[in-house]
């Protein structure tokens, strides 16, 4: 496949109708982002119906470890994609290919070390995350398979980022959808037909990602591809590795914070509710992430439009794009809020049937009650996420990191420490909407001042 130009030229980013541009860029991104969220939802649904409610709890306990693995993957993938985009913009294709080689080496090195450490200390890690004697076997069985395929996961995700950055966004999306399709086919086969339980679900995930990775490797091994593997690129280069890490450290830290928060949530739920409530959080979190990924796709669509017009000092187009994206994001998160209000029990029953005994009934009730509380302020979350990404796209990295980190560490973590001893499991649930409100207020203040600068002092903008 020969390299093709992006779907919009720089000139069109500054002149085309904004709604058309946003749709053109956002729709493929939304499809790609939601496909990754569907992985976890599909796994949980089949595990809940095929293995049982405690298996969902066991799988939920693996989230911090999965987030930690994803943190390293995001650091390499996002950092490398940014460097490759810059090098291609500079016309330095050789440096971009050297970066591609370092992506492979970094992912193999990090993936192997992470897998060895994870497998060696797995039980200790899972008990620290809140596992009990009833759930540890499920968590262990799932993570042993996932960790054995850790290198594959890292390479698949990072090479997909590079594929998108090197001018193949549709192919990147198609590869991710292929992985989801394979996972959907193999999950019921391994769980219901072959009876492999939670290990079967994990194996389905690894095989799906292996399939996707093979397609990516075929692309980069093809000399017809714009960027492809060449002799001499597979050698660590300090400057490239440093660049990847320095750019990727922000998403890495955000994922680390997410892991820390999930540990606190699981421990609080274990202490005040037990295993079933950990499973309920796992279900709620997967539903929330589905809507969050749609908003993340909108943000990716906003990025090139805002970045170009900000650099061109066309601040009216920047503000209009921002407002349009916020409106779409709020519509998405409001839909999530309405689902939590109107159909919480039906959502819970997607993951486990009401004929699954006392544990299943308790899980359905816990999900229904918790979801109503957790998503109370969810309409505001769309605004909050877009605002944080907006600052990143106009080069205000410190404000972007502030908004991303404070929701987790400054607001949510203290609430998780203070409220559960007083309110029990409801204290865990209420911590999340309270943190959302606090983060939204902070985002509103910072965004108000930024928009006022556009109006009052535009000449000070555009310098990054």
Beta-strand share of residues: under 5%
State the total count of DSSP E strands: 0
Categorize the overall geometry. globular
**Unreliable spans:** 1-8
- Helical content band: over 70%
Q: How large, in whole angstroms, is the Cα Rg? A: 22 Å
Q: Would you tell me the structural class of the helices and strands?
A: mainly alpha
Largest sheet: none
Question: In whole angstroms, how far apart are the ends?
Answer: 36 Å
Number of H- or I-type helical stretches: 19
Overall mean pLDDT: 85
**SSE pattern, N- to C-terminal:** HHHHHHHHHHHHHHHHHHH
How would you describe this protein?
- This protein starts with 9 loop residues before the first helix and ends in an 8-residue tail after the last helix.
- 51% of the residues are buried.
- It has 19 helices and no strands.
- The chain has 464 residues and is an all-alpha fold.
- The N terminus is likely disordered.
Topology of this protein?
Blueprint: H1 10-15, H2 18-50, H3 53-60, H4 63-89, H5 93-120, H6 122-128, H7 136-148, H8 150-165, H9 169-193, H10 197-221, H11 238-272, H12 275-311, H13 315-342, H14 344-351, H15 358-374, H16 378-393, H17 397-418, H18 420-423, H19 425-456
What's a quick, concise take on this entry?
With 464 residues, this protein is an all-alpha fold.
Sum up the structure in keywords.
464 residues; globular; 83% helix; single chain; mainly alpha; 19 helices
């Amino acid at each position: 496949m020969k390299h093709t130009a992006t779907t919009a030229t720089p000139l069109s980013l500054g002149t085309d109708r904004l709604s058309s541009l946003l749709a053109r860029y956002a729709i493929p991104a939304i499809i790609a982002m939601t496909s990754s969220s569907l992985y976890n939802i599909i796994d949980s649904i089949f595990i809940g119906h095929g293995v049982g409610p405690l298996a969902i709890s066991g799988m939920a306990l693996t989230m911090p470890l999965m987030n930690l693995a994803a943190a390293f993957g995001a650091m390499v993938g996002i950092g490398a994609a940014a460097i490759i985009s810059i090098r291609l913009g500079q016309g330095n294709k050789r440096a971009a290919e050297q970066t591609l080689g370092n992506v492979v080496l970094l992912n193999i090195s990090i993936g192997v070390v992470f897998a060895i450490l994870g497998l060696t200390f797995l039980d200790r890690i899972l008990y620290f995350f809140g596992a009990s004697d009833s759930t540890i076997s499920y968590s262990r069985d799932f993570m042993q398979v996932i960790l054995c395929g850790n290198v594959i996961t890292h390479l698949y995700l990072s090479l997909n980022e590079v594929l998108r950055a090197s001018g193949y966004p549709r192919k990147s999306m198609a590869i991710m959808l292929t992985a989801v399709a394979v996972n959907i086919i193999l999950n019921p086969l391994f769980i219901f037909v072959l009876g492999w339980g939670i290990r079967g679900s994990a194996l389905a995930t690894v095989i799906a990602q292996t399939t996707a990775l093979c397609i990516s490797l075929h692309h980069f091994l093809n000399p017809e591809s714009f960027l492809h593997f060449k002799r001499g690129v597979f050698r660590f280069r300090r400057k490239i590795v440093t660049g990847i890490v320095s750019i990727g450290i922000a998403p890495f830290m955000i994922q680390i914070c997410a892991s820390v928060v999930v540990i606190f949530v699981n421990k609080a739920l274990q202490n005040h509710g037990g295993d079933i409530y950990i499973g309920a959080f796992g279900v709620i979190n997967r539903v929330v992430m589905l809507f969050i990924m749609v908003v993340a796709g909108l943000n990716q669509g906003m990025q090139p439009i805002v970045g170009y017009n900000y650099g061109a000092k066309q601040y009216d187009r920047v503000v209009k794009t921002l407002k349009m994206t916020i409106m779409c994001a709020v519509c998405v998160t409001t839909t999530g809020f309405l689902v939590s209000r109107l159909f919480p029990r039906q959502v819970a029953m997607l993951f486990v049937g009401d004929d699954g005994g006392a544990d299943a009934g308790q899980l359905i009730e816990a999900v229904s009650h918790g979801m109503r509380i957790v998503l109370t302020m969810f309409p505001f979350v769309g605004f909050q996420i877009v605002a944080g990404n907006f600052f990143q796209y106009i080069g205000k990295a410190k404000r972007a990191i502030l908004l991303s980190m404070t929701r987790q560490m400054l607001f949510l973590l203290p609430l998780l420490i203070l409220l559960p001893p007083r309110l029990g499991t409801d204290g865990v649930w209420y911590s999340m909407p309270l943190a959302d409100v606090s983060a939204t207020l902070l985002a509103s203040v910072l965004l108000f001042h930024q928009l006022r600068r556009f109006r009052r002092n535009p000449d000070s903008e555009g310098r990054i």
